[in-house]
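=== RUN LOG ===
request id: a7f3
mode: sequence -> structure
chains: 1
length: 98
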Amino acid sequence: MNSKLKDAGMDELFRGILTLQSLEECYNFFEDLCTITELRAMEQRFEVARMLDDGQIYSDIVRETGASTATISRVNKCLTYGTDGYRTVLDRLKEQNG
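=== RESULT ===
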């Protein structure tokens, strides 16, 4: 965890997110919280993480997502050396989807 990120306000935000109980509640909350551009950027990074985890190569990811190679590289760095945030979510989704 990034100690520069952690504070009482961020804790409260994340506690609030953890109270969401459905996709509809997530859509409503995040649409209020973020711009469409911010949400699309997060969606793109998560899709890049999923594709990297599936073993796809940069050129395919660029073509399918429109992400820059810099974004792909950053996501790959997080998957390899990060705090395992992507890994946790990707693994849990795989478990849910069988």
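=== NOTES ===
The radius of gyration is 15 Å.
The chain has six helices and no strands.
=== END ===
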